[in-house]
Amino acid sequence: MPASQPSSRSSSHLGSAEEQEQEQANGHGVGLLLSVLSDKWRSPVLLALTKGTLRYGNLGRKIPGISRTMLTRALRDLERGGLVRREVFAQVPAKVEYSLTPWGQTLAEQVSAMDA
Asked: Does residue 20 fall inside a structural domain?
């Protein structure tokens, strides 16, 4: 047995966009929806981003009561899940913007419908 075998998955948590779409089509999107709904801060972060691209500080101000630690954790989880896109601009001071991916937009619409 070889000591090291190449992984069939990419380095991101859910893989490529094609793999994400396939997983969503296979019903794994339901698990992700439940994951978002079960966390206190993921859902508000997702809904805040439905209004458009936001920088970290602006996003934190739109969600009352969220700490910087919890905002960072929620953004990382949503980014890892393929729901949020993080764009870093090479400038001083550093500029980072967050926006929803198409899959994130779809999930946000479902969360919003449940919230209404």
From this structure: no
